[in-house]
């Protein structure tokens, strides 16, 4: 397939710039995976499409406020640092702007002295390895001085950092939110549990690669970025028990989906796992684990719209996106949701 096959026209005004309140007031496009039939609801109605035999799998990764601004020691110039990957304690691979001022040995001061950093290596791709130092606990300081690394298509300032976190986020490590989960409130989750639906958790730390465009014409030639994931034993047991009783495993988000589909399945049983995945799911892929998917509306020509097309069928998905545009759904990270069952 060609990357251009996944293009669709999206008016700029449909790109959501801020989260809706309350979280579960967002709209929900429900699509029948077999027929392509579509219903228009609100996210709080997601409970109507779940049964006591089902389970929901949520990604509990928490976004780091990983964008920080440093003043060059002894000067006035300001650099932006985006923390990408932790290499060791207080040592991170960072994207820096402007890069030419961040030479090896250069020191920067952050948060008016709450933290300092020294560039200790420049990588081949231009990223920097930076050793940070602070008196207080590193992540506590980062929470005080850092900003959320919002996607480039969101240009408005986010007033409340917690609105770019799911209500169940707990495992620090993502550079971007698993946005399908942003629609859930604690009250909605309680109602879902009260209905008898089981809830399990995986962790996949979302990397900035999720925003990288596919730059090749032929989808088969695209190389996926790598992300760390963990499927604990209790979640594996829940999934296997759900399938044993004829229930559905419904993935909340493409990140949960990629986690589950990356794990080994032996004799029909998913196994707990912890590792790195570069799984690339596009039409033609045979799903091993998930039976339903809750997700947001994704960028044209992205690996995420390819994943959704693999699950629900290319024609169904492209038609659903056309309808969503016509019906003026809100798109991308702070936008509305789609449930495919």
- Structural Rg: 21 Å
Largest sheet: 9 strands, mixed
Number of distinct beta strands: 19
Can you name the CATH architecture of the largest domain? 3-Layer(aba) Sandwich
Helix- and strand-based class?
Answer: alpha+beta
CATH homologous superfamily caption of the largest domain? QueA-like
User: Which CATH C-level class of the largest domain is it?
Assistant: Alpha Beta
Which sequence of strands runs across the widest sheet? Answer: 2-1-19-18-14-3-12-13-17
**What ranges have pLDDT less than 50 throughout 5 or more consecutive residues?**
none
**Count the helices. How many?**
6
Short recap of the structure:
The chain is of the alpha+beta class and 341 residues long. The chain has 2 domains: 3-63 and 160-340, 3-Layer(aba) Sandwich (QueA-like), CATH 3.40.1780; 67-145, Thrombin, subunit H (Beta Barrel), CATH 2.40.10.
């Amino acid at each position: 397939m060609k990357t251009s096959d996944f293009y669709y026209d999206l008016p700029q005004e449909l790109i959501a710039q801020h989260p809706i309140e309350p979280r579960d007031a967002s709209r929900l496009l429900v699509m029948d995976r077999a027929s392509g039939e579509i219903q228009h609801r609100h996210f709080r109605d997601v409970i109507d499409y779940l049964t006591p035999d089902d389970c929901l799998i949520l990604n509990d990764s928490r976004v780091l406020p990983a964008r920080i601004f440093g003043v060059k020691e002894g000067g006035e110039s300001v650099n932006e640092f985006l923390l990408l990957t932790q290499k060791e304690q207080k040592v991170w691979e960072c994207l820096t702007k402007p890069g030419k001022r961040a030479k090896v040995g250069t020191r920067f001061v952050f948060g008016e002295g709450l933290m300092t950093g020294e560039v200790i290596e420049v990588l081949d791709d231009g990223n920097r390895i930076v050793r940070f130092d602070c008196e207080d606990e590193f992540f506590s300081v980062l929470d005080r001085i850092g900003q959320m690394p919002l996607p480039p298509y969101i240009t408005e300032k986010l007033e409340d950092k917690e609105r770019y976190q799911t209500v169940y986020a707990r495992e620090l490590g993502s550079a971007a939110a698993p946005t399908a989960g942003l629609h859930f409130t604690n009250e909605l989750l309680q109602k879902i549990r009260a209905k008898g639906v089981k809830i399990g958790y995986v962790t996949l730390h979302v990397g900035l690669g999720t925003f990288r465009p596919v730059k090749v014409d032929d989808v088969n030639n695209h190389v996926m970025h790598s992300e760390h994931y963990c499927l604990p034993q209790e979640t594996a047991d829940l999934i296997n028990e759900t399938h044993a009783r004829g229930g559905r495993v419904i993935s909340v988000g493409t990140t949960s989906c990629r986690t589950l589909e990356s794990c080994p399945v032996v004799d029909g049983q998913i196994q707990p796992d912890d590792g790195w995945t570069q799984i690339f799911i596009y039409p033609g892929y045979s799903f091993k684990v998930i039976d339903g998917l809750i997700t947001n509306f994704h960028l044209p020509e992205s690996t995420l719209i390819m994943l959704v097309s693999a699950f629900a069928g290319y024609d169904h998905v492209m038609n659903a996106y056309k309808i969503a545009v016509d019906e003026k759904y809100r798109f991308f990270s702070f936008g509305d949701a789609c449930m495919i069952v």
